[in-house]
TrEMBL record:
Lineage of the species this protein comes from: Eukaryota, Metazoa, Spiralia, Lophotrochozoa, Mollusca
Protein name, per record: L-xylulose reductase
Subunit structure: Homotetramer.
Top-level taxon in the UniProt lineage: Eukaryota
GO molecular function: carbonyl reductase (NADPH) activity; L-xylulose reductase (NADPH) activity
Keyword presence, NADP: yes
Single biological process term from Gene Ontology: glucose metabolic process
Presence of the UniProt keyword Oxidoreductase in the record: yes
EC number per UniProt: 1.1.1.10
Amino acid sequence: MRVTETYNSLCLPVELRYFITMEVKLNGKRALVTGAGKGIGRGIVKRIAECGAETFALSRTQQDLDSLKAEVPNINIINIDLQDWDKTREEVSKIGHIDLLVNNAGVGCAFPFLDTPKEEIDRLYDVNVKAVFNVSQVIAKRMIEKGEGGSIVNISSILSRTAQPNTSAYSSTKGAIDNMTRCMALELGPHNIRVNSVNPTVVMTKMTEGHEHSVTNLLKRTPMGRFADIKDVVNAVVFLLSDESGMISGESLRVDGGLGVY
């Protein structure tokens, strides 16, 4: 948010006026975003770069990385399939110290509980859970070695706590992320490393296109009457990465238009 004459003319306390007009600065920071080629991840990595951080975008799709690099030339791109545990560990280790990590990469599927195949369960847990463990272990160790703390944001989902048909595998991975986030916050907090998750409602990206009919019941239960835009999630993530959230750790921040009140 930027300072405007409108804000300056409001009869607000100085502290509140500062808060609503602050502009997040990440100058001097180094940031890594996984799943940065499309959708939410692409929005996050572009915003972090705009805020001044040296930014690394990780994706398994080279074409997405190439188009991102053409759009934002100062972004560093890394092509890795996060299902490859050892290769991921090797390549992420080459980046060096990272101050800000966003574990955004994720995959989904829609199967009834009784018919969910093992291959899909393995794929979801490899990317949505195990990759978060893997990347975060490498990055957090570097943060501890440098001794200057850091911030980690894991992208979860409102489905970590809201039941929805045909999402048992996906929802269970996001429940795991929420609990992993709390455990990471507990263990890494003494090193001044904050860990939080962001839990969006449905965000209309390429991943969710074609499934609108299956989530209309969620829209009906959303007090604000709409699903989230990519920018809604990006804003929450950047806030949690920034020093403005310096005493927030171990939280799962719903970005759901009030759906979570049910």
